[in-house]
Amino acid sequence: MKTSTQAIAALVDACEPDSIVAVGEQAQAIAQRWRDTHGQCQLTCLDAADTEQGLSLPRTQDLALVTDSLEHLSHPAGQTLIGQLRNYGTRQIGVLVTDGAGWSLTDFIGLGFRRQARIEEEGHNQTLYTYNISNYNHKRDWNNPRFWANPEMWGKAWW
What InterPro entries is this protein classified in (predicted)? Predict the structure, then answer.
């Protein structure tokens, strides 16, 4: 069984980011450890209480990590924080939330996330949800010229 730190560290290792946004104490510690071992990594730490900071990211970020935060925010403020990170320039996002904190699987599915791991440590159940822009919108079988009324016009005429 993985600990929450191991699960998040595995996510960071798989992403190999050049830039990280960290929200929350645990996320900041893991991101700092990555930056210390990979000197070219740019680290931006945000305060979860100020959801407007998500809009002022210096550039498109490779990874955002959110821990120890959603439990202390109202549901709308948490959705705003995650939505801003997702919509304004983060390729992948990992969010660790304590079960029973008012957040459900459907909340995260509605934001485009997938459940990555369920973690039980020190008597607390936590879930790691992830978002990855590269596999968020999967290719649909019907979205090709074979299923269109005029397949010969595919890619030629735009209305």
Answer: DUF6231 (IPR046199)
Buried residues in 114-140 as b, exposed as e (16+ CB within 10 A): eebbebeeeeeebbbbbbbeeeeeeee
Q: Which of 107, 108, 21, 101 is nearest to 62 (CA)?
A: 21
Count of CB atoms situated within 10 Å of the CB of 60: 10
pTM (predicted TM-score)? 0.82
- Nearest 10 degrees: Cα torsion 42, 111, 49, 98: -100
Residue 92 backbone dihedrals phi, psi, to 5 degrees: -135, 145
Predicted pLDDT of residue 55: 63
Residue 94: domain span: 4-48+73-137
Torsion over CA of 80, 43, 97 and 132, rounded to 10 degrees?
A: 70
Q: Does residue 67 belong to any structural domain of this protein?
A: no
Tens of pLDDT, residues 27-36 = 999 999 999 9
How far apart (Å, rounded) are the C-alpha atoms in residues 66 and 28? Answer: 9
Look at residue 159 and tell me whether its pLDDT is greater than 80. Answer: no
